[in-house]
Design goal:
Low-confidence stretches: none
Mean pLDDT: 92
Strand content: 25-35%
Helix content: 10-25%
Distance between the termini: 34 Å
Oligomer: single chain
Structural class: alpha/beta
CATH superfamily: Vaccinia Virus protein VP39
CATH architecture: 3-Layer(aba) Sandwich
Number of strands: 7
Number of domains: 1
């Protein structure tokens, strides 16, 4: 079986960097990473037709871009109805969120609620997604890094933070900083 052509690929890997997906259309700003498409994601519209993709991946990318609203609207435009968006970004409590000088935005568990219609501020865009998954990840604790054994404290924090994300962000985030957030959203058209 031969390789798929770019036109046959229905997954879009935005900001692929040095981790291209052979089953996706890989996009990056620099030709040095050898993407399929060289494009600055801050320039709209992106070079793809409406309703083109079944899956879009934005891992460690959205925090670098100028406008979260425009990016989410553009992903929506180029995605088919029911397409899946997988997005990962540092949590605002992660030291890397503020340490990296290329990060323009910082995200919490409810940042993408603006696009689901569940935020009181959802009127900033008509673009809609259905939240399928939201999860906070934590760095392995000291015990795991030094002995390989799981840290019971990390396990408790992980469970509590993901079960009660609002309470975690309001009360515990600076005591027990998260590493990153992962979201899975479905395009609603």
């Amino acid at each position: 079986m031969g390789q798929m052509t770019l036109e046959e690929k229905t997954t879009l890997n935005l900001g692929c960097g040095r981790k291209p997906d052979p089953n996706a259309v890989n996009v990056d700003i620099t030709p040095d990473t050898k993407p399929d498409v060289v494009h600055d994601l801050n320039v709209f519209p992106w070079p793809f037709p409406d309703n083109r993709f079944e899956k879009v991946v934005l891992w460690d990318v959205i925090e670098h871009l100028d406008s979260v609203l425009k990016v989410m609207e553009e992903v929506h435009r180029i995605s088919r109805p029911g397409a899946v968006l997988e997005l990962a970004t540092p949590h605002f409590s992660c030291s890397n969120s503020f340490t990296d000088p290329t990060h323009r935005h910082h995200f919490g568990c409810f940042s993408l609620d603006y696009f689901t219609g569940t935020s009181e501020h959802s009127y900033y865009t008509r673009t809609r997604y259905k939240l399928l998954y939201r999860w906070l990840y934590f760095r392995p604790g000291f015990l795991k890094r030094t002995t390989g054994l799981p840290s019971p404290i990390n396990a408790v924090i992980l469970r509590l933070a993901n079960r009660y994300p609002k309470a975690y962000e309001e009360q515990w985030a600076w005591m027990f900083p998260a590493w990153y957030l992962a979201f899975k959203l479905e395009v609603v058209k």
